[in-house]
Write a structure and sequence with these properties.
Length: 395
């Protein structure tokens, strides 16, 4: 998972709402005071009463999200009184506009209509106090201003609701994808269990019968007992071979179409695989690190299949982008890393296919780990680590 540093604006909005709104309220209070006391004279001179009304009109903005309608009512009442007493008609209008926006975002339709009416009344009354302003023009201006505030709030509300719906749909899609992945894993495990049952049940039944026979005739018929032990030995070897084949090359056919014996591929076949991918248009580079040595067949096949599936995913989802396969032989582990440039080997939003699930199941057989991730600079990487100490158990 990759993290990006949030922008200053994102960090600002990530603050606690009370802190953010308190800062807005404080800024409006101080700004209005400064304008009221040191700005041009456009009404009754500033005094303690005007400062108190300004504080009552702007200070409650700190609580605007918790009680939007109450803040709206207080702001409208104090602004109405402020203008009626003859103070500057342009002051405290911003606070009223902010509370109108807040009501549109958080409150019911009844509250929205009521707050719009209050705002229109306050702004109309403030404009009508000027001798040169016609009442009709004041009313139109107030209605337009209220529509702007309510429109901005309703747009924000609609966007938030849509974002919430999209988040719910995304969560639902993720849950469905995870459920599909679990079902795919369950099917794989059922298939493994079925194969194990077929192999173990048959051979263990034979071994059980022959062991009982040998025990019964051990003293009376040593030759028969000896033959039973031979059958047990042969059957146990066959069972061990079948279980090794199952755990190491599950889902791999053992014969070609012409019926000839099929040899499972391993890391020695990587050059052939790379050449086949190059012919298909995928530029592949193979890098071998460490001392190459013989590996158990099952683990060797597991590593080969990881490379094969990864290259197939690159060609299918990322196209003909440069891809590097790095196989590292360490004293205790075998590491396979497949990295491609450009597009991701699994498109964003797409569920993990059965190929990735199959790779994960193969690696788990050998108590290894596999990591698939998108790279910050673009591209995709598959990193599998297989402990060589557990290879005999996986076999």
């Amino acid at each position: 998972m990759f993290f990006t540093r949030p922008s200053p604006l994102q960090r600002l909005f990530a603050l606690h709402p009370l802190v953010l709104d308190g800062g807005v309220a404080l800024s409006l209070v101080v700004g209005t005071w400064l304008w009221d006391w040191y700005g041009p004279d456009m009404g009754r001179p500033s005094d303690l009463l005007s400062s108190t009304l300004t504080l009552l009109a702007n200070g409650p903005l700190a609580m605007r999200r918790r009680a939007p309608m109450a803040v709206m009512t207080l702001c409208a009442a104090t602004s109405l009184m402020y203008h009626h007493l003859g103070y500057h008609i342009g002051l405290n209008s911003i606070a009223l506009l902010v509370t109108l926006y807040t009501v549109a975002v958080h409150s019911s339709w009844k509250a929205i209509v009521a707050s719009g009416a209050m705002a229109v009344a306050v702004w109309t009354q403030a404009s009508a106090l000027q001798p040169s302003v016609v009442l009709g023009s004041a009313l139109i201006s107030a209605v337009v201003l209220a529509i702007c505030g309510l429109g901005a709030g309703l747009s924000t509300r609609l966007l938030a609701e849509r974002t919430k719906q999209l988040a719910a749909l995304a969560q639902q899609l993720q849950d469905e994808q995870e459920a599909a992945a679990r079902r795919a894993v369950t099917r794989e495990r059922v298939k493994i269990a079925r194969e194990l049952h077929d192999v173990v049940a048959h051979h263990m039944s034979v071994i059980s019968v022959q062991a009982g026979l040998g025990h019964f005739v051990a003293l009376s018929d040593p030759a028969t007992a000896h033959a039973a032990l031979g059958v047990i030995s042969q059957t146990s070897r066959e069972a061990l071979h079948e279980m090794r084949r199952l755990l190491s090359i599950l889902r791999v056919e053992t014969t070609d179409e012409d019926g000839s014996l099929y040899t499972a591929p391993d890391l020695r076949n990587l050059p052939t695989l790379a050449e086949r991918m190059r012919v298909a248009g995928l530029p592949v580079e193979i890098v071998i690190e460490g001392t190459v040595r013989a590996l158990p067949p099952g683990l060797n096949l597991c590593a080969y299949r990881i490379v094969q599936e990864s290259l197939t995913n690159v060609l299918k989802h990322a196209g003909t982008v440069r891809t590097k396969v790095r196989v590292t032989y360490a004293p205790a582990t075998l590491t396979v890393r497949v990295t491609n440039e450009g597009g991701a080997a699994v498109p964003p939003g797409r569920s993990r296919g059965h190929g990735l699930i199959g790779m994960t199941e193969r690696v788990k057989l050998y108590r290894g780990t596999i990591i698939t991730c998108r790279l910050p600079e673009g591209g995709f990487e598959v990193l599998a680590t297989l402990p060589l100490s557990a290879s005999d158990e996986g076999e």
